[in-house]
Amino acid sequence: MSPKSRLYTLVKAWKNKPFQEVRDACGAPWLGMSSQALEEHQSWSKRQAISHEPIFNCKGTKLTGSLFRPLLTASDMQLLRLFMEGLDAISYWYRSGRFIPGILPMPTHAIASSGYIDALSDLILNSRLPVGLIALGIPSLPEPDIADAYKEGLLRMRRLGVLLHFMNFTGTVEQLHWINEMQIEGIHIDMGQLRDEVLSNDVIRELKRSPFSPTQIYASNINLVKDLENASVMQVDHGYGGLMLSPLSRHQILQINDSRIAKAIFSLHPHPQPNQNGDQ
Q: Which domain of life is it from (predicted)?
């Protein structure tokens, strides 16, 4: 049996008994589903790992999504298992009555691999989540030798209703061209790298040049008041980082809109004063 067909069998078996059946069907240690890994996963789930970074609107008054951080540093052996963890969290929020989109980053080589894309496609289809709740985090532009396979992988994700987010936008011409060509739904700008040199407003206008553009701007790594000020100047749509709120467990994410928690979180951030009619 080829590695690709074995991978397909593994993911297909996840439909009814996700983690136990994946382990039984696989038997391939490179996927990270050995008995020891399974036990570690179960223990991790019980502890409610602090893995989900909350994302808010530009005013910091509404939860608009979550970034699943473990996938940013995952090894190849962990990718599918952690992707399932991310889907499981989004499903947990959805079943609890909350429509919270989740961003699941994947490395460039995985997106360019038909085997990984086959696996991700089956996992997404089996999750039965509605369109708009799953976003694929894209770390960088592909190298020329894998550009075609990379683009095909993204198009396959797009056909499943998965949103595409470019995670490390720096404003290069190549990035702008590629984002416009692929109609990327979200771009993420690291505010920590822009404390001394803010991106030109012309670049932001370029991203928003069409009123029909689907692109939303995310300010990441907001840790200082200066970062928050820069994000305001750039008129970003969303923001996240330690100054706004540190990563949480999936259950804590679910509770953010509780009035007591929200009051504690946002009391540190300035809000515009109401006008004479009492409107914000």
A: Bacteria
CA distance 164 to 187: 9
Q: Which residue type does 120 have? A: L
Contact between 134 and 65 (Cβ < 8 Å) = no
pLDDT score of 255 more than 70: yes
Residue, of 274 and 205, whose pLDDT is higher: 205
Within a domain: 73: yes
Handedness of CA 261, 267, 268, 270 (dihedral sign): positive
How do residues 114-136 score in pLDDT, each as one tens digit?
999 999 999 999 999 999 999 99
Q: How far apart are CA 83 and CA 74, in angstroms?
A: 10
Helix, strand or coil for residue 124? Answer: helix
Residue 123 sits in a domain whose CATH number is: 3.20.20.450
